[in-house]
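User: Last request for today: this protein with adenosine monophosphate, please.
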Amino acid sequence: MSERDDAAAIAVVGSVAFDTLETPAGRADDELGGSATHFAVAASFFAPVYLVAPIGDDFPDAAREYLVGRGIDCSGLEHRSGRTFRWHGRYHEDMNKRDTVHLDLGVFAGFAPHVSTAIRRAPFVFLGNIDPTLQRGVLDQFGGARLVGLDTMNHWIAEARAPLEALLARVDVLVINDEEARELAREDNVTRAARRILGLGVKRVLIKRGEYGAILFSADAVFAVPAFPLEEVFDPTGAGDTFAGGMMGYLAAGGDVDERSLRRAIVYGTVLASFVVEDFGGRRMRTLTRDDIERRYRQFVALTEF
Ligand code: AMP
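Assistant: Here's the final one, the structure of the complex with adenosine monophosphate:
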């Protein structure tokens, strides 16, 4: 990797998974998914990505080849004996709601990520949705990251609140959905919830609101974007991670982490997420091009101009 590339590199830790997905549009089994996979694929449209996660004996060469083919560095995929993480999700008619039907930790049991020296040099770090204690273990290995993003979910807010809260003071952007933000802050109003979370020491809170878009809160600014209006949503799985990956990928490629860049990055994240929901799991990303992304970005600008 060249010096220039290294300055834009992103390291992501999270789950690499096989998902069973049930939505009002149908069902898919054994789809390559996981928080880190969706993030990495989206970010790889913009910047070099290092993927850190455990995989099992059942992880096929074809899946690794796909990721490597997207330019994703897979040296941080740790092969462990056992099954790859599996998740089975079922969406309601209102696709903003979903239930976890089944979750099999597989090779995550006892996983303690070790990050290589090359990966530690990545200036952008994303701690995908996994146990906050594991997230901390990864962050401890990065000395001077320029920007740290973190995602979490209800399960960890309920089961691991103390380590999660302790981690927030070291995070630049917390990416979280509105229901989780309310739960973390113990506050129903989303704006007040964001203020409370900022009080825990995180620099910015980016609240995802599914088909209603996203709102960025910092100490002195608020920025809101709608979601890209789509006539058909096939499967929302991975939308949140794809959103975060698009956003951090764009930031890393541009090199600036000021408010203005962050706002534009959020629009790119929104655009990437609008594609991933058009098909099951991450299928749509396999055919997506940079031209498609730019075209929809321009449509988004026209949509929000007044
Ligand atoms: P998203 O729709 O962006 O929230 O992400 C969905 C992805 O997260 C799926 O591909 C799942 O494999 C993964 N996932 C679901 N639950 C968990 C969990 N508890 N820990 C880690 N990854 C998870």
